[in-house]
User: What shape does this take?
Amino acid sequence: MASVQPLHRREGVNLVQLEADISSVRSGSSVASIALPDYVEHTAGVTRVGALSAEAVIRDYESAAKEIEAMGTELIDAAQKCEALTAQVHDAIAFMRETAAGYREEGRKIFKRIEECALFTEDVRKTCEQVKRRMAEVSVGESPRPELAELEPETEGA
Assistant: This one.
């Protein structure tokens, strides 16, 4: 098991020098020039080292919080792009449905026209057969109808 060793205070620690060292490492002119976030404030009577340590920690947390918020902004942008894409997809689906409905309607019209033509063709065929039959009856013998008999050519005396 690890043992806990007490830290001994060294004599001659210069807090002013420590603050100057910390300031030189930071990119700003001094630690004091970087404002604290609005949601924290120093407690009265805290030592300078405690205050600097607390400031360093809160700045790291604030920096992380800002990065998290930035990710949230990116997610909002991504969601807006997704919504726009979804709207385009819905438009495309609606167009496809309209196109499919148009094809079905056109197919129905052609189907009906083909069947009408088939019925008409069948009527023409039946009519032609009836005419052929009547022509055969007229040319073979006397016509049962007197009006057709007048139209028959005279075969006697020819």
